[in-house]
Amino acid sequence: DATKGEIQKELLEKELEAVGIRLNKEKPNIYFKPKKGGGVSFNAMCPLTKCSEKMCQLILHEYKIFNCEVLFREDCTSDEFVDVILGTRVYMPCLYVYNKIDQISIEEVDKLARRP
Q1: Can you tell me the distance from the alpha carbon of 52 to that of 66, in angstroms, rounded to the nearest whole number?
Q2: Contact at 8 Å (CB) between 102 and 68?
Q3: In sequence order, what are the residues at sequence separation of 6 or more whose Cβ sits closer than 8 angstroms to the Cβ of residue 108?
Q4: pLDDT tens string 60-97
Q5: Separation of CA 85 from chain center
Q6: Residue 71 in contact with residue 31, Cβ under 8 Å?
Q7: pTM metric for this prediction
Q8: Over the chain, what HEC string results?
Q9: CA 49: distance to chain centroid?
């Protein structure tokens, strides 16, 4: 609704994020494969600044995963790592559609058109 402003858009984005839909984001480039035995094999192809190996170990133990293979191909956050572990997240582009556009001024329509 164009008359409600930016707050409505932010609320909808937060609600979709909470149920596992990631808008305008790419899937993290992390290889994750659970195994039957052998412990945790952790490798990173780039320096990790947002998430350390120790943090990943703690996250895996939190989800009761003790045997797996993990390969970070890019620097990702711990939230993105959790998304890869769960595997139930959906990444999709988003198109914003506003209704009641005739009830706001031309200047406000121009601002809406220039927003990313």
Answers
A1: 17
A2: no
A3: 2
A4: 999 999 999 999 999 999 999 999 999 999 999 998 88
A5: 12
A6: yes
A7: 0.81
A8: CCCCCHHHHHHHHHHHHHCCEEECCCCCCEEEEECCCCCEEEEECCCCCCCCHHHHHHHHHHCCCCCEEEEECCCCCHHHHHHHHHCCCEEECCCCCCCCHHHCCHHHHHHHHHCC
A9: 17
